[in-house]
C-alpha cells in the first residue's frame, strides 16, 4: 500500500493548516479597544441568551450581545423573568413609541439613529428591555458616541442578529403570544473538554514518537546484521528504513511549508462557502483518515498475527498488499463513510477525532526531521505563519482568516474536518474546544526526533531529550489554554507558545550537554560499525 501511504502524506502536508487551539461559539465582531468605557457606558460586552415561548410553549433560543450602556443582565436562568415581547411603533424607535408599554420587552430595527436614543425612548414608553435587530447576520457591540451625555438608562439593551429578528417578527405578525427570557450565563473557568483535548494531543504525540523511534531502532538493528554479512555497497541507509515508506524533510520543504500552507489557507477562505468545495475537503480527509486508520490497525494486528502480516497478494495499481491490509480495509472505509454521512450529528466529533489521530500518528511515523537544523527552520516558519494568519491577517482581510476558516463561518458546517475537537459539555454556551493538526504534528515531529536520537544513543529518559521535549510540549499547550481563558475565549495561535517551549528546551539542553553540534547537523549519534570492530579485532590477533 505504498502508493496510498505516500498519497496520504502528500495530502496531509498540502492541507496541513494550523488553527487556533479553541474557537467558541458566538464570537463578536468588534474589539474592546474600539469601545472605550465612560460613566453610564461601562458595561462589559456579554453574550445574552434569548429564550422564547410561543403561546406558552418553549420554542427557539437566540443569542445576542449586551450593550455597553443600560443595566446589566442577570447571569442565572432562574432569576430571569418571562416577559411579553412586542414590536415597536415606529419600528426603529428613533421617535417615542405611539403607545405606552407596561413592562414588555420591545423589539426594534437598527435604523439610523443612536442606540442610546432607542433605549431612552423605549424606557420612557415603559419597556422593561429593548431588543435591537441588526441589519446583518453578525453581532455588533453597541457603544456610545464620544460626546453623548444622556446615558442614564435603566433597562438592558441587547442586539440580535438579523435572522433571529426575522424569525421573531414572523411570530409576532402571526398573532402569536411571544414571551422572552433574557439571561447571560457565565462560562466555567476551565471546561473538562480542554483537559481531554490536552490529553489527546499529548497522547497522540507519545504514540507517534514511540512508533517512529521503534521503526528507527529496528532499521538500525537490521543494518547491524547486514554489516556483519554483506559488503558496504549492499547496505541500506541508516535511520531511514524503507525509502518507499519514510520521508525526510529537507530545508527547502521546511521553508516552502509557509508558502504552500498560506496559499491553501487563502483558497479555503475564499471557497469554503461553496458546498462542493467543502465536500471535496471531506472526501480528502476521509482518504487520509482511511489510510491512517488502516496503517495503525495493521501495525497493531501484525504483532498478534505475524504470519498473516507477512503474506502478500499482488493487487493492480497498489502492488503487493498484505492479507491484514485487505482484512481491515473494508472496516476503515466503512468507518470513514459513516462519519462523512453523520459528521454533523451530536456524536460526529468522535469519528473525526479517531480518523484524525490515526492520520497524525501515521504521518509522524512516515515523515521525519533528519536533524535539529531542519526542525528549527520548520518550526520557526510555522511560528511566523501561525501568528500572521491569526493576528496580522485582520489588517488585510478585516477578520482573522485562520479563525474564520477553523470555525467554518462561511461553510454552513460546524468547522472544517482537519481538527480534533471535543464538545464543551459543561459550558452553557456549548460549542467545541478544538486544536488543529499542525499544533500536534509539527512539534510532534521534533519530539519524535528526540526519542529516535535517545534510543539510538542508548540514553535513558532522564539523560535523554525526549522526556524534556514531551514536558515542554505539554506545558506549551497548557499555557495556550491559560491564554485562551485570559483572552476571554478568543482564538489563540498555539504555536506561539508551543514552539518556544519545545524548540527552546531542546536547544538549551543540547548546548548544555555538548550534543548541539551533532543534533544540529547529523541528527544521529556516532556509532561504531560492527564490521569495523571485527576488522580491528582480526588485525590485533594477527599482530599478536
UniProtKB/TrEMBL annotation:
* Location within or outside the cell: Endosome membrane
Q: Which GO terms describe its biological process?
A: proteolysis
Q: Name one Pfam family in it.
A: PA
Q: Could you tell me which InterPro entries the record lists for this protein?
A: PA_dom_sf, PA_domain, Peptidase_A22B_SPP, Preselin/SPP
Annotated membrane topology = Multi-pass membrane protein
Q: Cellular component GO terms, alphabetically? A: endosome membrane
Residue span of the signal peptide, if any?
1-25
Please provide the record's keywords in A-Z order.
Endosome, Glycoprotein, Hydrolase, Membrane, Protease, Signal, Transmembrane, Transmembrane helix
**Domain named PA: which ranges?**
84-167
**Which residue ranges traverse the bilayer?**
195-213, 249-269, 275-305, 317-341, 347-367, 374-392, 429-451, 463-484, 490-509
Can you name one GO molecular function term for this protein? Answer: peptidase activity
Q: What does the sequence similarity comment in the record state about its family?
A: Belongs to the peptidase A22B family.
Summary of the function given for this chain in its UniProt record: Intramembrane-cleaving aspartic protease (I-CLiP) that cleaves type II membrane signal peptides in the hydrophobic plane of the membrane.
What is this protein identified as?
PA domain-containing protein
What is the species of this protein?
A: Solanum stoloniferum
Amino acid at each position: 500500500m505504498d502508493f496510498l501511504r505516500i498519497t496520504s502524506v502528500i495530502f496531509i502536508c498540502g492541507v496541513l493548516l494550523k488553527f487556533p487551539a479553541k474557537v467558541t461559539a458566538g464570537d463578536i465582531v468588534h474589539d474592546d479597544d474600539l469601545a472605550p468605557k465612560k460613566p453610564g457606558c461601562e458595561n462589559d460586552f456579554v453574550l445574552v441568551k434569548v429564550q422564547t415561548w410561543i403561546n406558552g410553549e418553549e420554542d427557539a433560543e437566540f443569542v445576542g450581545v449586551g450593550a455597553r450602556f443600560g443595566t446589566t443582565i442577570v447571569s442565572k436562568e432562574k432569576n430571569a423573568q418571562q416577559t411579553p415581547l412586542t414590536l415597536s411603533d415606529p419600528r426603529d424607535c428613533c421617535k417615542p413609541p405611539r403607545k405606552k408599554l407596561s413592562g414588555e420587552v420591545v423589539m426594534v430595527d437598527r435604523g439610523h439613529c443612536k442606540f442610546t436614543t432607542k433605549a431612552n425612548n423605549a424606557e420612557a414608553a415603559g419597556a422593561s428591555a429593548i431588543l435591537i435587530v441588526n441589519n446583518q447576520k453578525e453581532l455588533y457591540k453597541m457603544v456610545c458616541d464620544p460626546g453623548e451625555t444622556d446615558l442614564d438608562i435603566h433597562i438592558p439593551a441587547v442586539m440580535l442578529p438579523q435572522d433571529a429578528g426575522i424569525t421573531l417578527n414572523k411570530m409576532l405578525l402571526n398573532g402569536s403570544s411571544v414571551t422572552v427570557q433574557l439571561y447571560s450565563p457565565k462560562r466555567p473557568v476551565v471546561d473538562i473538554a480542554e483537559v481531554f483535548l490536552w490529553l489527546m494531543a499529548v497522547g497522540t504525540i507519545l504514540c507517534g514518537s514511540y512508533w517512529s523511534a521503534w521503526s528507527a531502532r529496528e532499521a538500525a538493528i537490521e543494518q547491524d546484521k547486514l554489516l556483519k554479512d554483506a559488503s558496504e555497497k549492499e547496505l541500506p541507509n541508516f535511520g531511514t528504513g524503507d525509502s518507499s515508506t519514510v520521508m525526510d524533510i529537507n530545508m527547502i520543504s521546511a521553508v516552502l511549508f509557509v508558502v504552500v500552507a498560506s496559499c491553501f489557507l487563502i483558497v479555503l477562505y475564499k471557497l469554503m462557502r461553496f458546498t462542493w468545495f467543502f465536500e471535496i475537503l471531506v472526501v480528502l480527509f476521509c482518504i487520509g483518515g482511511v489510510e491512517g486508520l488502516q496503517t495503525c490497525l495493521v501495525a497493531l494486528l501484525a504483532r498478534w498475527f505475524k504470519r498473516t502480516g507477512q503474506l502478500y497478494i499482488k493487487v493492480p495499481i497498489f502492488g503487493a498488499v498484505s492479507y491484514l491490509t485487505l482484512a481491515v480495509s473494508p472496516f476503515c472505509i466503512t468507518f470513514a463513510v459513516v462519519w462523512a454521512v453523520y459528521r454533523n450529528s451530536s456524536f460526529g466529533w468522535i469519528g473525526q477525532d479517531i480518523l484524525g489521530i490515526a492520520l497524525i500518528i501515521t504521518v509522524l511515523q512516515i515523515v521525519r526531521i533528519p536533524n535539529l537544523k531542519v526542525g528549527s527552520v520548520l518550526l520557526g516558519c510555522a511560528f511566523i505563519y501561525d501568528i500572521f494568519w491569526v493576528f496580522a491577517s485582520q489588517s488585510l482581510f478585516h477578520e482573522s482568516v485562520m479563525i474564520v476558516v477553523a470555525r467554518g463561518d462561511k461553510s454552513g458546517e460546524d468547522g472544517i474536518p482537519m481538527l480534533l475537537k471535543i464538545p464543551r459539555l459543561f459550558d452553557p454556551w456549548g460549542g467545541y474546544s478544538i486544536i488543529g493538526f499542525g499544533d500536534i504534528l509539527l512539534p510532534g515531529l521534533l519530539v519524535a526526533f528526540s526519542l529516535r536520537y535517545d534510543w539510538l544513543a542508548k540514553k535513558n529518559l532522564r539523560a535523554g531529550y525526549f522526556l524534556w521535549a514531551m514536558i515542554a510540549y505539554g506545558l506549551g499547550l497548557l499555557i495556550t489554554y491559560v491564554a485562551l481563558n485570559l483572552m476571554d475565549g478568543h482564538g489563540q495561535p498555539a504555536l506561539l507558545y508551543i514552539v518556544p517551549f519545545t524548540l527552546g528546551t531542546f536547544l538549551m539542553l543540547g548546548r548544555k550537554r555538548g550534543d548541539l553540534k551533532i543534533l544540529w547537523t547529523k541528527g544521529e549519534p556516532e556509532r561504531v560499525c560492527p564490521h569495523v570492530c571485527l576488522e580491528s579485532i582480526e588485525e590485533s590477533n594477527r599482530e599478536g
